[in-house]
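Assess the record.
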Amino acid sequence: MASISSSTTQSSIKILRQKTSPWRSSFFHHPLRAFFTNPPAKSSENETPPIDGEPISNQSHEFYGEPDQSSRSSSERVQESVKIFNKMKELGIDPTVRSYNNFFSVILKRGRTFMAKRYFNAMIRNGVSPNIYTYNILIWGFCLSTKMATANRFFSDMRERGISPDIITYNTMISGCCRVGDMENALKSFNELNEKGMAPDEITYTHLIKGFVGAGRIEEALDFFREMGGLKLKSNALIYQALVLGLYENGKMDDAQTLLKEMMKRNFRPSDPSIFLTVMKAQCDVGNLDEAMDILKGMKNLRISPESAHYGVLIEGHCNKGLHDKAGKLLDEVMEDGILLNPGGSPLEPSVYNPIIRYLCEIGHTQKAELFFRQLMKLGVQDPLSFNNLIAGHSRERMPEHGFELLKIMARRGIPSDSNAYSSLVESYLKICEPADAKTALDSMIESGHLPSPSLFRSVMDSLFSDGRVQTASRVMYTMLDKDVLENLDLVAKILEALLLRGHVEEALGRIDLMLRKGCYPDFNHLLTTLCKKEKTIAALKLLDYCLERDCNVNFSSYDLVLDALISAGKTLNAYSILCKITEKGGMKKPTSFESLIKTLSEEGNTKQADILSRLVAQKTSGARKGQKVAMST
């Protein structure tokens, strides 16, 4: 094979320096120039030339990945390589077979199969003869892109040109067939390899075992594994990985576990650590937790860092069997080592974290559970069940302020809450004698669309009332009635009485007005009697006036009490006003009993009112019939 002479190279460099084109001047210093222009080193014919790390060497365990087409830099590298390769002739540099080989390696790694065929045809037209390395690279590239028909044509073409396939060629063909599931042609290549007196190697068996596993023919894969052992060939992690997964998928869990243990014992690190997760989950599903834990230990021995998904499977498995203590210890490892927040880790499923959070909350470790859940929140978890379990846990531990903070987070993020969580929070505030905070939590509960139970309303009202917060209790009472919870009326009566006694008459009348609209009737006679006894005459006057305006059911004796209290307190004009209203309603039964009021009015100079009252009494007396009942009296 001709190589570029020193004089030719010097001449090309001289021409290059004389050109003014920036591209031409940059080519001389371009790092890829040597890649295409260096003559092949004088070496043994059987030595595989370096192909920039391409996996065609017989020392590699894995020939195939996916064609590298995703990266922009990879695409730019292909374009740049094509430009340089095409520019070689302009610079007086004839491509050699090695130039073509390196060029094919670059473009085929990135899936440019059509381009490779065009340049191969150009290579033949230019009189450059391909060698075995050329065909191995081409077959490898087309197998990589699963274009087996073209790979087979190159395989036939190389033999027509008198180039004998070597072990690399056959391994590549076997791998390509396995990649597309064509196990019959893979076996055909394997048999042909043996017929030609070539000894199959570790690579050969690796591809065949993986291929048969992928085709669902696990027994044939195991046969090749045993045959490989009989030939004293070294196994590798890829073989174990494929067999373990194949056995697992075929329901042979015991065999898969045995092989996995053997793999770990031999310190084989799988290329895909998910194999551990797959088998671990399968063992947990059937309750073999000790076997699953052995896998975790094996991973650590291989210095493979377990991820959150591995711990998640184990935590869930232990929780499902009621072994929450062991699940808690596994969670401790996750938290201490910061595994949950490791980049690239898989998020835990609700079936993993909800049971352990609930358990921790039930045994009084809610703060630990919340620390765990807050890490989950950083990963985007917003599970309502976990929130509610944490709130209930804080409530049981009498730390409702922590639970209320969680409720605020839920409200901000629009996460649905649970009425039981609110109820437990309210009850927790009451247990630590914080009725005002309990009322705030109750309001939040109602704002969130939950209706408190009658007993919860009563607990809050009673606690506020006992703490002397009558008006706050009154507001809770108003909310309860407004929500049509028409119970706890005995406590309602106490709150009304307290409001009136404390002078919050307008507020009390507003509450009474709501009660009447809801069909509830307070005991006006009791309220009036109590107010008179406590000498709260103005409150009694306003309440009686309210009753008269609305024709409420009030005993005549209650009228007498209020009038006597007003007169005794010297509030004669108030007594006169209310007596007039009573008389207009037909509620006067013994007008002679009001002579003292008329006399007092006259003595105080209120002669006009005394005269009006006298005439009114006289009219009522003359118009009254024997046995007439007094309106509003009972």
